[in-house]
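Attaching the record inline, Q. Sequence:
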Amino acid sequence: MAEEKRIISVFFVILQSLIYTVFAMDERLDKVKVQCDYLPLINFAIQQNGASIIHQLSIENTTPAPLKDIQVQITTEPTFGNAAPIAVAQIPPNESICLSSFNLTLSSNYFTQLTERLSGNLKIEITSEAESVFCQTYPIDILAYDQWGGLNVLPEMLAAFITPNHTAIVPIIKRAASILGQWTDNPSLDEYQSRTPDRVRKQMAAIYTAITEQQIIYSTIPASFEEYGQRVRLADSVMAQKLGTCLDMALLYASCLEAIGLNALIIITQGHAFAGAWLVPETFPDPTIDDVSLLTKRTAEGIYDITLVETTCMNMGHSSDFDDAVKKANGKLTDGNSFILAIDVKRARHSGIRPIPQRILHGQVWEVEEKETDILKSAVHATPQSINPYDLSGNETQAVITKQLLWERRLLDLSLRNNLLNIRITKNTLQLIPANLSCLEDALADGEEFRILHRPADWESPAMDFGIYSSIPESDPMVGFINSELSQKRLRFYLPENDLGKALTHLYRSSRTSIEENGANTLYLALGLLKWYETPSSERPRYAPILLLPVEIIRKSAAKGYVIRSREEETMMNITLLEMLRQNFGISISGLDPLPTDESGVNVKLIYSIIRNSIKNQRKWDVEEQAILGIFSFNKFIMWNDIHNNANKLVQNKIVSSLINGKIEWEAATEEIDATDMDKQVSPADIVLPIIADSSQLEAIYEAVHDKTFILHGPPGTGKSQTITNIIANALYKGKRVLFVAEKMAALSVVQNRLAAIGLAPFCLEIHSNKTKKSAVISQLKETTEIIRQTPPEEFRKEAERLLNLRAELNQYIEALHKEYPFGVSLYDAIIHYQSVDVESCFDIPQVYLDTLDKDTFAQWEDAIELLVRTANACGHPYQHPLTGISITEYSSAVKEESSQLLTGFIDLLTTIRQKQDVFSVLLKDTDIHPTRKDFQTIAHIIRRILDIPELTPGLLTLPLLNETLNEYREVVVHGQKRDEQRKEIETGFTQEILSINAKQTIAEWNRVSAQWFLPRYFGQRKIRKAINIYTLKTIETEDIKPLLHRIIRYQEEAEAVQKYTGQLPSLFGRPGKNEDWNTIEQIIDDMTSLHSHLLNYAKDIAKVSQIKQNLSVQLTEGIQTFRDIHAHSFNELYQLANTLTATEKKLSGMLGISIEELYTDSADWITIALSKARTWKENLDKLKDWYQWLQAYQTLHSLGIGFIATEYKEKNIPTGQLTDSFRKSFYQAAIRYIIAKEPTLELFNGKIFNDIIAKYKQISAKFEETTQRELFARLASNIPSFTHEAIQSSEVGILQKNIRNNARGISIRKLFDQIPTLLSRMCPCMLMSPLSVAQFIDTDADKFDLIVFDEASQMPTYEAVGAIARGKNVIIVGDPKQMPPTSFFSVNTIDEDNIEMEDLESILDDCLALSIPSKYLLWHYRSKHESLIAFSNSEYYDNKLMTFPSPDNIESKVRIVNINGYYDKGKSRQNRSEAQAVVDEIARRLRSEELRKKSIGVVTFSIVQQALIEDLLSDLFIFHPELETLALECDEPLFIKNLENVQGDERDVILFSVGYGPDAEGRVSMNFGPLNRVGGERRLNVAVSRARYEMIIYSTLRSDMIDLNRTSSIGVAGLKRFLEYAEKGTRNTINNVTDQSTEAAASIENIIADKLRSLGYTVHTDIGCSGYKIDIGIVDTENTSNYQLGIICDGKNYKRTKTARDREIVQNNVLKALGWDIYRIWTMDWWEKPDEVMTAIQEAIARKKSSKVNAQTTTTTGIDSDPMTAEKESVNKESTDKEKITKEEPIKEESIEEAVPTAQRDNNEISFVLKASPATSEKQTASASSAQDGIQQKYRSAKITPGSYSPEDFFFSESYSILTSQIRKIIENEAPVSKSLLCKKILSEWGISRLGARVETQIETALDTLNIYRTEHEGFVFCWKNREQCISYSIYRPVSEREATDIAPEEIANAIRQLLTDFISLPVADLIKACAQQFGFARMGSNIDAAMQRGIREAVKRNYAKIENERVTIAD
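Structure, as predicted:
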């Protein structure tokens, strides 16, 4: 009732508080409508403070004519005021004016005299042109002088009744000063001068005490005084009457406070008023406040900004002292609902509200007296308690912001679902009945235990205020009881006994589970709550814990119940609250890190004060001193706790430490292996690849196991999950432990399924969710214990070796072909350049030149040739140049002049020589010799010899055997010279006669006697000496005798040699011979030898020489001197001419470089020839400058050793334009020969043999992958101990066995892991987890993982990742920095995308990139089935580094734009309805088309509102066409509609874009495109435009030219503009167009071949593709010019760029086949050796393609016995709607044809590897690329029977039987197993037969027998199979089809059941039936469906797929 009354009262107050608005209209005067806003009451205070009575007067002219000369007159009744008239010129018709300024003067004297309330009026009269048009009176209350009007009108006017200057209060103040002096020894009322709140409070207490002494009696206040006001007793009245209401007392107290200079406050609550004051010199922002928290926060303990006083305690009869009055006043505020407002007197004074003056009665007249009273501020009561405000000044220091702190902050949940911000009393929280929280905390901190008790049975809990029990007033007796209980270590809670017991049990169990499962305590005692509001206008308060004290609940016994005690952990501040305040409200609270402490624990009161001080300006906020026991946690609490409590451990990790410090803390390896080197060096056995990998993936896989941390960039569709799978598999093979971390389960599942597909499921433990059930973990571990060990395949190493050898052989060819030799050319280069040059090879470059040729030299060669060409072009061709023969080394005008003179002299000289040539006749008489220039020189030498020889006798000249004889006489000369030397030497001491002694006999005697003894020797030697002394001229010593004899002997020997020739010397040598003048003879011999030699050189014939000698000897008969006398002059003259000629020739050679060989020919007419040349040269010296240029060019070539090039060019007259090409062709020809001779691989190459090697390599590679999987499985299985025997319970094996048996009852997952660390690492060396589950289940002290792999790292915040990083040694960060980062998008409640202000959060990928951690890149893109779909992203965001693959239809773009005529509804709905409708129409069109709906559809919008609009329109469509909804949503890839923020990770065959933004209704285009404008907008665009597999359609009212980049700097918007341009213009105009043939093609084999093909009439493109990967040649289909009918790949640069043999021969080839290419290979060596054969083969391939296309179009049926590959290819060409779930983004793996596995398959989902099943299974299973679950799902292929014009009558004709069998064969081939019933329906439908009669059935049965169709029967239902083998081995099911349940074979249903049980292990029979029915597309159950599924279950049991136990179907063991 009280609440209702309160609500009514408040409503009335609100209603009354509105300014009166009165509408009045005089019915008679209807020309104007008047609205007057005025005050409904007035008093002296209002008059004194100048308040305006009339606020506004509005006058509206309601007539059609203007009102003129308007007068407004205001009068009052009674006359309390007067106003001058207001004039208005005119008011136009139907318009209004507003008057707000009125000169209404109120009479102060009138209001002074009023002693009672009166009713009065305001009268307003309006005239127009002196005619009254309006007159109205308005009621107004006139209050007495001392009457307050209440809160309804100007409530702050109450401050006017506070009269600090009233004389009546002087005694009070004087007494207060005296009291203050007693208390403090200082009576000064010094207001705030001391700056001490306690001093101010004591002044307040002194005033309080002084008034109390006045013995004023309390008078009851009138009801609802606060609404309607009351008469106020001013200070003098109160003091005189000693009587006062609560308002009177409050005003008196406030007057005294203001009088002593304190800032007073008046507080109005319902039915009550009291006062207070500021203890600090402050005021509130406004005169009135209605937020009680602004008071309670400032009156709280430790703050003491304000003290409130219950002023009625000053009345007589109340024994309360000041402190009690303060407590009571504070208690009045406990109930915030009773608070109305407070008035800040000081602030009101600032607003101009003055105190009313004192009124004094003089006779019958009241007069006011305005003067200030001089108050003496100096004057036994109990001294009031002192207050001690907390010193909060030291709390301004800011906490150090560390990386760890930022991580912790980011993990906090700032949403209202977090009970740390918005606590509510639930089963997880219990509220204590408030006690002294500070004492409670101190006791718990001291280790005290407290019993937990229920509320007193006789006490009712207070009402709950928004989920929290309200505070209990201090006056409530329960407060004392609770504090008493606290002292006795008992805590009371609000719940009754039974409810409390249940709640405590729940808390006890929950907290214990949290510790066991998460390793973190979540049970806290929350001490203090912050009451806060989301916005200033929010009505609902939120409560957030302030302090969190970790506690634990202990159950003593059932009787004693529960106790709580503190855990040995520190009390902590609610950091979530602090972060929320900082982020949402900008409130940073300092001084709480660390928490302030006291003697026991933390200083609770100080902490509350710090909080209050920080939020004191927040309206309605406050600290509630309540306590709550509860579970406090949030979504990411475990990760927060992991970082918070393990900071020291985390920082020990090198990567975490690096992230914290911002630099790499370890030595990062700089050397990175290249896949090309790996292909050469790494054996397949050294790197395990269970799934085929391209080279970029291979590098990452290899580096991962070499203790490296790196970033792996994975752009869209590059096979990230496949690479991760291989990384994990290889790491496990190397004995490493791996932790795979993915935040999203979808990403983790993809990798998990891949690992399962290669047989690694038993060794990988998946715990993604932190809510993972123990049973699921135990089940996984149990499966691992049950695996059977396998023997490692023996062939593993052998196959690896074979593969390595084959790889080397393949690489050897490509390396040899492209090996660059020192001269800078490979064989490939040489061949293409040779064939590209269309001139003849004119030069033969010796092979030896290439041995030493290098690039620089060859470059010099080319430069020299170019110089030669330039010179020839400028100076003319040197062939037959008139200056040929001249070779000058420098040119100048002087040289030219000197050359002219020299040539002139040369010509004259030759002319003279010609005239003197007759001299030769003397020598040449009758010899028939015609001398040449050389002969002329020889004759000159002959003449010189004849003239110079000392003696020439005819005998010597004609001497036969001249040379031999001369040599013989040369020796004689030597003997003669030696003889004479010996003689001369001997004759110096002896007479000539001594030369004749017998020296030999004498020396023999000397020797004989010298050998005898002394005496004979003496006498013998003396005798000989005496004999010699006869000849001596001086004494000879004994020792000189023997040397003398030797000299004599030598003389005698030489003389003897000469003696033989003495007789001939005169005849041969004349006088010298006679005189034995050996020197002259020797000169004669030399001269004669020379003469003979010259004669021989001249005559060239010995006979002619003899003839010349004979002629000359005749002329010498008179002697040589006579001959000389006759001929000496002419001979000398000719000889001089010869010398002059030689000198001239030297000058010619030196100056003009003319050589004798060039000057003369070997002709007797040499002078004529030389004269001719010389004259020609002289005549053409004007060309010498040009000739010099040519000579310089030639010299350059000559200096490089290739002068022969210039010579042959000149001599052969090779055209200058062909010189360069001819030279190059000659060089390349020489290089080709040289390289082939050097490389046996090339010399012996044969393309067919090489193709066989490739095929073998593919075959062995495929087989080796399977072998690898078995090897890996065997190796990992060998690490697992045997579980066949019971182990010791305390062992790790025993512990696990026990927990498997009891399903881990009583133990948490975390604890189990802690107990079996070694066993777990051996059993499951790979764990797949989320960051959250890592923090929950893996202890930081556990052994570190060798490798941590993060997927989707661009979307994983660093703060989530660091915990997982710290648990490993090395990390691989997998993600794409060009895609979406993690965002706070979904945490925003209301999103205005036009002004969106979300910030991208940092991701672990971004942080690692900032650290410059090494990066690896995945570069091969497989997703897009058309290159145009990824070309924009590749060009815009990946610098065209992605290797994308063109498709056969690559000529036309699959990205197109549809321009929509509509507008963007800017500022309103922000939608684009036209675009949305166009998108929905397109969806409907596609769904209605049987062909188009095979491709899945996705819709991407740029905004959420556009997404919502499309969803709404689509829903409307589905309402009217529900069948379309079924088609759209009930399929493997349902239709999705998403926006930029949430589309990452999704992909569809066809993507429809709705841009949404564009021109508005007025055609204006804003440059605000929502999320695109933000930082990172380009990343959102990149994600959005790379989602399509087959086609992308953009619906847009926006065109690219509408986007003005000058108006925005957003990168995302710039990207949108370019994307729209791309869509508008197509690939060829915006991305480098590779099929454009207009540009000059570079030299390559493909261009050469393409030109040949074009010459044959084919349309050919080269270098097809937009990225680094190209199809070399494409032959355009003549029938469909947008497609290629044949692709040709050569072994050129594109082929060489591919790093590995696997890439070249398998990966690329498989992708191209999967895309539909028909590829033909051409090898360069084949082309070089037999180009014609290659061209023929290409033409044959084109012809085969055309033929196969024709055959495909004409083929109508496929027989049952047809080639399985043919049927398979048919299925490949059909687009399947089955979606492959686990193998995305990879190329297809080729299988051998012998295995009848298709080499490539195309589906609507992905190009994917064919993955083999686990080697752990006994049966080989190959997973189809289009399967969704391990290869057992397939699409139902309904047979399409060729329509025919059959009639029912024709059915039984014999001619129709073959048609019938053909139809049955077609159905069986496509649909088996098919029910006989369905088969008959199909046949009857084709023949137009309405029902199945006996005769028809017999005919069909006969046909089935004829075809030997195998049939099975189940409960009367017959099913047809291809053969019995199909029935026995059938292992697939076809989930969705048009079949009835009875048409599905039980064997097929059994396969579906097997798959379901594989996923679910066990299901109740009813659930399994329902689930299986849903698999086959049956949404509703029926009896037929139920029976069919039952048959399937029985068949599954029969096939040992399942077993039935207790109405449950379980997967069979």
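The first helix runs from residue 2 to 17. The mean pLDDT is 81.

More tomorrow.
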